[in-house]
Write a structure and sequence with these properties.
Helix 1 packs across helix 3. Helices cover about 45% and strands about 10% of the residues. It is mainly α and about 80 residues long. It has one domain: Orthogonal Bundle (434 Repressor (Amino-terminal Domain)), CATH 1.10.260. The protein is globular and about 30 Å long. Strands 1-2 form a two-stranded antiparallel ribbon.
Length: about 80
């Protein structure tokens, strides 16, 4: 699992919620963007995909980035 996404964390359960709300299967959401396995990893293990894939997925779902991504509070901050 990767934490490279600049202090961002994806909420896989929210991604699943919005996908189901749209009536899409994992295969339908992934079509032309990524694989069904990628959707499964996002939803079950909160795996952060590339920004390109993430933006295309949220566009297909008709949601905002902030609906499924939160800032990782564990990242170090300078004061």
């Amino acid at each position: 699992m990767s934490r490279e996404a600049v202090g961002l964390r994806i909420m896989g359960d929210k991604m699943r919620y919005y996908r189901r709300l749209k009536g899409l299967s994992q295969v339908e959401l992934a079509q032309g963007i990524c694989t069904q396995a990628t959707i499964s990893l996002i939803e079950k293990r909160n795996k952060v995909p590339s920004m390109n894939i993430l933006m295309r997925l949220i566009d297909r779902l008709g949601i905002e980035l902030t609906d499924v991504v939160v800032e990782n509070r564990n990242s170090t901050q300078k004061h």
